[in-house]
Amino acid sequence: MSKTKPIGVNFEELESQCLPHLSVDCVVFGFHDNQLKVLLLKSKFIDEWSLPGGFVGKTETVEEAATRVLKERTGLGEIFLNQFHIFSDPKRSNPGLKPENMKKAGVKLTNYEWLGQRFLSVGFYALVEFSKVDPQPDVFSQTCEWKGIDEVETLMMDHRQILDKALETMRLQLRYQPIGYNLLPEKYTMPELQKLYETILGRELDRRNFQRKILSYKILKRLPERRLGVAHKAPYLYRFDLEKYNQALLDGLSGDW
Amino acid sequence: MSKTKPIGVNFEELESQCLPHLSVDCVVFGFHDNQLKVLLLKSKFIDEWSLPGGFVGKTETVEEAATRVLKERTGLGEIFLNQFHIFSDPKRSNPGLKPENMKKAGVKLTNYEWLGQRFLSVGFYALVEFSKVDPQPDVFSQTCEWKGIDEVETLMMDHRQILDKALETMRLQLRYQPIGYNLLPEKYTMPELQKLYETILGRELDRRNFQRKILSYKILKRLPERRLGVAHKAPYLYRFDLEKYNQALLDGLSGDW
DNA sequence: TCAAAAGTGTTCTAACTACACCCATGG
DNA sequence: CCATGGGTGTAGTTAGAACACTTTTGA
After folding, report:
1. Which of A1, A228, B66, B136 has its CA 20 to 30 A from that of A168?
2. Total domains present in chain B
């Protein structure tokens, strides 16, 4: 007799196709309403939020696994993605996948053991354009939503630690690489870009110095258009000069923030 | 009948105690004769060099695995160690552990399959004091030696890529963290420290500017002693002020190189 | 006494900081 | 017509680059 699959997944297949003990977790950053947001999932089985994650196929790289997970959760391909750490505490395991919690939720499986095993997880962080994301929960989750970075409370397992490390890594990266292209819409104003930087860095920057510094990198182009409909002088719109932007990604920037 | 163990390892035990598919590889840097060195192993089974590596125990973190490997290869505990990347190309596998190569070398085992499986490897880099290391080959290797970073030719599998990535990561780290404490003996002269920086960065630095910049961090103490026995003015000896050094590790430095 | 390499100081420039003034826009 | 916030400019400060002279040492 065929196995019950109340949550829409063939776990026997999963087990046969994925590496044991290894998963990926993604910290997906977006920027909206002058706030840094992160994509989170709420478990079907326990009352906790977690990062989007998944298993690694037997013939996949971890990057491919993360890309696949992100495609599923956001609908986006071609995502800016960076591996930043592997979390390997032997005690880390997903309580949302623990036999007792899944049974409590009425899930029937024969191979709880595989899901309940020890997992080491490779942390990735992704930068995406908020408005392009269509958040989709996975089979273990009831919802998938953006949360403001400051509103995030406790997360499942060590996911809070993973989130913090991702933030720290992104802040460091900001020192020597331009980011923003992946987080902002095609056109944006200088104050918007500044807000993004301030949000990531967690401190205010001088408006004029910021503008001068950013422009000195020569990675963005001012457009003749302006942002209209504001009760003050209309700011110019800019967009990244992709060629120079990518060159700067390779060469690195010089400044400190 | 008990299994033949011509290379001194019980592989059944290894398999039962280690995670499948996962290994660690360490890029161990040392500094000697004004040269950056890296610790390499020469395989018993094929004519290739590789990085020190090992498997991950079922209840170990990857950090613990790397620490264990380094203890075995160098004799040192308390090593400065940094995880920097996970290498997960599904095609990567160790030719020195491939059945045909081990059989050719006369090794008799029943579970070649385990050794020949796909491995994902977590890359670590370590900074050690050259003179304190007592290089010890592992069971798969005939020798363990220091090689000048510029003399390293081809390495086994993707180890060359791992080495390059380690170097790149260390150079980046040099931008915002002091290193040197782990690579130099307790007392050293300013020109020696400068040579180390020049070697890591791969370019020459101005003697006077270097001294001023390093001293401005206030992480080292000038000793009343000088290095004698040189046919020129005797340079002062310095040592790191551990308290301030560690604080700087946490806070980060400001300068660019 | 000389070559080699260390100690120390100055000048110039570029980058960052901290401000001030004017301008456009919607309410 | 005014509050809000954007566009631009300038002076002061600090960090880095380039460079010169003096000192100590063993051979």
Report:
1. B66
2. 2
